[in-house]
């Protein structure tokens, strides 16, 4: 099966650092507004996905949720979670005090990949 999300080595290192400090994590990527579709990292349970939001996979064992409307736009794309130096537009994410910000790179799935994608979990 083809995963819908992966992470760079830099993102993985930061995730482990955040997990050591905060415990279990979760990610949520909203559809816009003040955070500008920046992926946000929270302590698990620190954010509640809305009805029909999509959990597209796990990043280092932690759920990565996508806003239901944004997922409809990006459902044919692979996500790669990365991290950059600097502050994202929202500042609500756990990496912000470290002077870091998560970012997603996208690429379209190939036709072969589309036939073998892992299932999406919907929040009901």
Explain this structure.
The chain is an alpha/beta fold. It has one domain (5-119): Hypothetical Protein Aq_1857, Chain: A (Sandwich), CATH 2.60.300. The chain is built from three helices and eight strands. The chain has helices at 9-22, 68-74, 111-114, and strands spanning 5-7, 25-29, 39-43, 54-59, 62-66, 77-85, 100-108, 121-122. The strands form two sheets. It has a five-stranded mixed sheet with strand order 3-2-5-4-8. The longest helix has 14 residues, at 9-22. The protein is globular and about 40 Å long. The model has no long low-confidence stretch (mean pLDDT 92).
The CATH architecture assignment turns out to be Sandwich
Q: Write down the secondary-structure element order.
A: EHEEEEHEEHE
Helical run tally: 3
Instruction: Kindly report the CATH topology.
Output: Hypothetical Protein Aq_1857, Chain: A
- The total strand number stands at 8
End-to-end span in angstroms?
24 Å
Total of domains: 1
* β-strand amount: 35-45%
Strand order of the largest sheet: 3-2-5-4-8
InterPro entries: DUF779 (IPR008497)
Organism: Sphingobacterium wenxiniae
Protein name: UDP-glucose 4-epimerase
What is shown here, in short?
This is UDP-glucose 4-epimerase. InterPro entries: DUF779. It contains three helices and eight strands.
Name its key features:
single chain, 124 residues, alpha/beta, Hypothetical Protein Aq_1857, Chain: A, five-stranded mixed β-sheet, three-stranded mixed β-sheet, 3 helices, DUF779, UDP-glucose 4-epimerase
Write the layout of secondary structure elements.
Blueprint: E1 5-7, H1 9-22, E2 25-29, E3 39-43, E4 54-59, E5 62-66, H2 68-74, E6 77-85, E7 100-108, H3 111-114, E8 121-122
Parallel strand pairs: 1-6, 2-5
Antiparallel strand pairs: 2-3, 4-5, 4-8, 6-7
